[in-house]
Amino acid sequence: MGTPKEDLARPNSMVRRRLVAVCGLFAIVLFCVALSFGQKFREYPGWEYENFPLPPDYQVPGEWAFARLMYPSVRFSDRPYSPYWKQGATNWTIDYPRSDRHLSEAVRRLTRIQTRSVEQPVDLDEGDDVYNWPWLYGVEVGHWDLTDQQAAKMRDFLLRGGFFMCDDFHGTHEWSVFIAGMNRVFPDRPIVDIDNKDPIFHTIFDLDDRYQVPGEQVLFTHQMWEHDGYEARWRGIYDDKGRLMVAICHNMDLGDSWEHADNPKYPERFSALGIRIGVNYITYAMTH
Question: Which domain holds residue 60?
């Protein structure tokens, strides 16, 4: 036991707890302020849409936002840092932003996740921004051409707990292009079929009975597949602890099922399944 003078100089347990609480709150505030600098909403011209109307609450932040991967396309493989893909209107903007906002609205309605109403394009070249977005979506990855630096950033993001969902690529040729990029990300991890019992198919909805979800093209071609992608494949890449890091939706077009959820000509059953898959994958990413 110290002297009276020492006791006066030493904070008691209650004071210490208050100091810890205040310091912890201050740290959280600083973290949120720092995080907000990486979360500024931005828009680009889309492949199909320009000047798509903004929802009235688009400036309201959320604990989750639809993060869309920006990437260079194969067509620019000789110029991997070509400014064209960084300005939008290339493959990464397919269905953007209509599908992103439809799925975000569905997440709001079907879960308790506080969801931002607008999406966020994410460029792996932009410092540490990708780490602000726990769930990342890539469309038409049968056309991507990741650089070695982008692949390394993606690998680090995933191993730190991030989640990547990719969709809307079809057949053997587009699969080979996708694999070329994914092998840069994970040259040493296998791609496997996801078992029906995996938690990702049972987070919100039980999705044992899945079926191929076609794109809008089904309205014109009257066929479910594109190219030689006759069978939908649900594949993934796991980390060392058994967490699914990459969810690969091959030979299907979930993006179109979200985009055309309000299109009376597009069959409702495809949007119903596509939205449920999206909600499950997002919930899994936020809880695993």
Answer: 37-287
